[in-house]
Specification:
heterodimer; A: alpha+beta; Immunoglobulin-like; about 25% helix; globular; B: mainly alpha; about 80% helix; binds zinc ion
Chain lengths: ~675, ~300
């Protein structure tokens, strides 16, 4: 196969030299390349066979790997690029620690001397075959800094090639490397005898269709990689429990009281593993009509044994609803990791494995572990299977997943109530009756929009978002955008949009435009106007009720033609057949820059209800009615379809607001708090 | 006098002088009403004619709250739904335990200092009332105030030292000890131990402060020899360790019982009618009154235990 592609390319080049116009040459070349690329299996671009040994005493991993990589782009690759993520902890001036410092994240600054880390490739060679001669290339390796030019950063390694890898060709490399594991930070590393190993091996970047490497420095915890097959032998101390991407296909004890676990998985884009002697293992099979069964493997820490059912139930909920809404979970197994206390490894997704997270004391009302478990299990779909470039478009997995997570929570769990943790967070308390925003859960705009909403449009690459912009634009706003879209198109249509998008792009790397195209195609509408605003701009959506007036209309004063005669009326109402009525006016305002069609609901004193539509384009719109009753309530967007509306409290007007009772009720509660606080302050008298 | 006797006599005495408890409560209420009216005004203004008021009246309206809190200024910025029910106590207790009780914005901070000073004054009134036959609350309070203020301020310096030196030190020690722990339970026990180490001296200082004030009143220790008052108190406590500590423990248990009762009955956020809203407020007021009465009970019992002829 490979030989054929190679010959074909040579023939093409020869053909170009001999043929006519440049344009025609280019076209025919591209057509030929495309036909080659079409035959490439996109689930087998980067395939790893690894043998690694974890030395728990020195916290090092030594490994050897064979990597086979196929160029799936339209242009030749003149070099190869690798992520060495653990070099983020090599020194305190790496791009990652600079960024962490910039965002005021603590946790790394008290690193002890033996807790710094590195990832070093000690040898690399190209394995010989019909395309490439076998050659040792270690000395050609160099560190590059494509994002910031920071010479202290060694998170990207480059191998210049003497002979490029042409489109469709596969190159095989053998390399040995050593990784020193950092103290856990940013969801990877070691603490005590708990090792959570993510982003731990030299990993090849993505060579984009345009012929450019997407192998960014490690600046923030978002990743991007090609699909492939992982066959990994992990050697750990005997008796230690291992959880990893894939299924364990073999296990053997070694004479040196270690055990080798072999894990295998196809069609994934990362490999993460965890090991500790403390895990307790549980299995349960997920079954739901119309969906393939899934073996759920749960590894629990001893202080969370009582959370077993809650972990499994919420994992099953995600598999069930995501499976039926978007498409079935294809792997047949999933490993749920309950992360160790203060390991900082909770709440993260990896292919066929994810970490939840909970506390020792965590009653059901805290939704821990449920919320995070649904979210991370959900990432198996939006990240694992639909593998967008998280580095640039984090919203495509985080936003989709936050939106879907809230949908599952609404399907399966009661509305969320306020919960707080006291005494340094050890003691939880759930405030029953204090319902907090659950429609979007962690994805509501209200907390952050005043300062951050207008900073960046979502369209800015994720790693370049300004302070506060990352969370907002990767999670909250896209979740609200998708919920708004669902409300606008209707769930039936929107579910079709999502399942089509999922079906079409699974095991691939869609970009924002790919999703927008599916929306337009499936819904049969051009939604460009919406995406231009919600995605392409930082404009705010905010509709509200402005002035509302209800004036009793005066009886006629002046002349009126009646029965063919001119009659004078004195304004007292005597002699006219007029019934008393009200002139009602409701001004609806567009406070934000962004435009969206809204409905306006008007309720009159006698209970009559009108529902009007407004295209929302002008700055304001007045609704006028002469009716026997006055207006008592006006609501813009009564069903709260426009979830992106940044202030829903101004969407309604009532003639007799309950504000006195509401204000007294909550101020009186606040007073009891203050009175009690005063007593505590007087404790030291 | 035995612990139990002192406890009972203290209870009797504070009940007999309940009008002073009500006076203190009245002041507490007035202070709270002044600030509370700002909060109520701000909430009302922020609601305007919005239908959000309906859901806020019936329960809570988080969408409104997030907008409100993002823009709230001054004392209104401390408004949060966690002040509901027992949360009103937990929020303060949590701050007290961690030595952050005075970490509140301007208005509340100064009000707290004022209230603290008021209690120094009132404790003088109570102690002289219970400790002498011809005591008169306000006159004696005025006469003893400066001395009591000095004693309380000296204790205050010790408290500050405990929370700014000892607690941070223990924090970093516990952090070091538990740094590699991957099970939450032992870390929790370490944390409990840390607060025990902080609060045992705090309570002992409080004990010494209380008896210093009693001794200062009883022996009419002049301002210039005020340093003798804590010595007298220490001597008394060391002579009767079980009685003094026992009494403290007994009254501490009563406070825990009060707290437990309030926890059981403290209503959440579900009231929607004026009558129920008022009722809930009244229940909160009963708890506040019991707190004030209990503080008086502490002083009354300790004064009784110290005895007249000591
Ligand atoms: Zn996520």
């Amino acid at each position: 196969m490979k030989l054929r592609y190679h010959l074909l390319l040579l023939l093409l080049v020869a053909g170009i030299l001999l043929s006519g116009s440049a344009l025609a040459r280019q076209d025919s070349l591209l057509t030929a390349v495309d036909s080659i690329l079409q035959r490439i299996d996109h689930t087998r671009i980067a395939n790893y066979t690894m043998e690694v040994r974890l030395d728990v005493a020195t916290k090092t991993i030594s490994g050897q790997m064979e990597l086979s990589w196929t160029n799936a782009a339209r242009l030749p690759a003149a070099d190869l690029r690798f992520h060495l993520y653990y070099n983020a902890w090599r020194n305190d001036k790496s791009a990652f620690l600079n960024s962490v410092r910039y965002h005021d994240r603590s946790g790394w600054n008290d690193y002890r001397d033996d807790e710094w880390a590195y990832c070093e490739v000690s040898s690399m060679k190209i394995l010989g075959d019909t395309l490439f001669p076998e050659v040792e290339v270690s000395s050609a390796l160099e560190y590059i800094q494509p994002n910031d030019g920071n010479e202290f950063d060694r998170t990207v390694l480059r191998l210049p090639l003497r002979r490029p890898v042409f489109p469709g060709e596969t190159i095989r490399l053998a390399l040995t490397w050593e990784t020193k594991v950092p103290r856990t930070f940013a969801r990877t590393g070691a603490i005590g005898d708990y090792f959570f190993l993510a982003q731990w091996f030299p990993k090849i970047g993505v060579f984009e269709p345009e012929g450019l490497w997407n192998c960014q420095q490690y600046i923030q915890t978002e990743y991007y990689a090609d699909f492939g097959t992982y066959d990994v032998k992990l050697t750990v101390p005997r008796g230690w429990v291992v959880g990893a991407t894939g299924r364990e296909i073999a296990r053997s004890d070694n004479p040196d009281s270690s055990t080798t676990h072999q894990y295998y998985q196809e069609r994934v884009h990362d490999f993460t593993w965890v090991t500790t002697p403390h895990f307790q293992e549980f299995h349960q099979t997920f079954e739901s009509p119309g969906l393939p069964p899934v073996d759920m493997r749960l590894l629990l820490m001893p202080d969370h044994l009582d959370k077993k059912e809650r972990y499994l139930e919420s994992t099953a909920a995600a598999l069930k609803y995501y499976g039926s809404w978007f498409g079935p979970y294809p792997y047949g197994h999933v490993t749920v990791i309950d992360p160790a206390y203060q390991s900082g490894s909770g709440g993260m997704e990896y292919p066929t494995l994810f970490t939840g997270g909970t506390r020792w004391l965590s009653p059901p009302g805290t939704y821990s572990p449920e919320s995070v478990t649904i979210h991370e299990a959900g990432h198996q779909f939006w990240y694992g299977i639909i593998a967008n470039n998280e580095f640039d478009h984090a919203w495509m997995d985080e936003g989709f997943n936050s939106y879907a997570q809230q949908r599952v929570l609404r399907e399966c769990y009661p509305p969320r109530e306020l919960s707080k943790r006291y005494l340094e967070g050890f003691l939880p308390y759930v405030f029953s009756g204090v319902e907090i925003l659950s429609r979007t859960g962690g994805a509501d705009p209200y907390g952050g929009f005043y300062s951050d909403f207008k900073r960046d449009p979502m369209a800015v690459p994720s790693w370049r978002y300004g302070p506060g912009g990352y969370r907002l634009n990767s999670y909250n706003k896209p979740a609200l955008m998708l919920q708004t879209l669902e409300n606008y198109l209707g769930w039936e249509t929107f579910q079709k949009v999502l399942s089509t998008y999922f079906q079409r792009w699974q095991f691939r790397h869609p970009r924002p435009a790919d999703f927008f195209a599916v929306v337009n195609e499936v819904s049969g509408r051009d939604m460009k106007w919406f995406f231009d605003q919600a995605y392409g701009s930082a404009d705010l959506f905010d509709y509200g009720v402005g002035e509302v007036k209800s004036k009793a209309s005066q009886p006629l004063k002046g002349y009126w033609q009646s029965n063919g005669e001119r009659q004078f009326f004195d304004g007292s109402g005597n002699g006219t057949a007029e019934t008393s009525s009200f002139l009602n006016e409701a001004y609806i305002r567009r406070w934000g820059e962004a435009i969206f069609p809204v409905e306006v609901q008007l309720i009159f004193a006698n209970g009559d209800t009108l529902l009007e539509s407004w295209d929302g384009r002008e700055r304001w719109k007045v609704f006028r009615y002469i009716r026997p009753d006055r207006l008592v309530k006006v609501t813009v967007d009564p069903d709260h379809k426009l979830m992106l509306d940044v202030n829903y409290a101004n969407n309604s007007w009532v003639n007799k607001p309950q504000r006195n009772a509401a204000a007294f009720k909550w101020a009186s509660k606040w007073m009891v708090w203050l009175q009690n606080l005063l007593e505590f302050m007087a404790f030291f008298s | 006098m035995k612990t139990w006797q002192a406890f009972r006599e203290g209870g009797k005495n504070i009940y007999a002088r309940r009008r002073y408890v009500l006076v203190i409560y009245g002041l507490n209420l007035i202070l709270a009403l002044i600030l509370g009216s700002f909060v109520a005004t701000d909430i009302r203004a922020s609601l305007g004619n919005s239908a959000a008021a309906e859901t806020l009246r019936e329960g809570f309206n988080d969408a409104w709250y997030r907008g409100f809190s993002a823009q709230a200024q001054g004392v209104s910025a401390t408004f949060r739904p966690a002040v509901t029910g027992i949360g009103a106590v937990f929020e303060g207790l949590d701050a007290l335990l961690q030595g952050e009780i005075f970490n509140h914005p301007g208005g509340i901070y100064w009000l707290g200092l004022l209230y603290w000073g008021m209690w120094v004054f009132f404790s003088a009134g109570f102690i002289s009332l219970f400790g002498s036959d011809r005591g008169e609350f306000f006159r004696d309070a005025e006469r003893l105030f400066l001395r009591f203020l000095l004693l309380a301020a000296s204790a205050g310096i010790l408290y500050i030292l405990i929370f700014t030196v000892l607690l941070p030190l223990l924090n970093s020690l516990v952090e070091q000890f538990t740094r590699e722990m991957i099970d939450e339970r032992p870390v929790f026990y370490y944390t409990l131990g840390k607060y025990a180490l902080v609060w045992i001296p705090v309570l002992l200082i409080q004990l010494v402060l209380d008896y210093s004030k009693i001794a200062a009143m009883r022996h009419d220790v002049p301002l210039k020899q005020l340093q003798n008052a804590p010595l007298l108190a220490l001597e008394f406590i060391l002579r009767h360790p079980f009685r003094t500590l026992g009494l403290h423990l007994l009254l501490g248990t009563i406070w825990l019982l009060c707290l437990g009762c309030y926890w059981l009955i403290a209503p959440g956020a579900g009231q929607s009618y004026w009558i129920t809203i008022m009722l809930v407020f009244l229940i909160g007021q009963i708890y506040i009154i019991s707190r004030i009465a209990l503080k008086g009970w502490f002083l009354a019992s300790e004064t009784a235990l110290y005895g007249k002829g000591n």
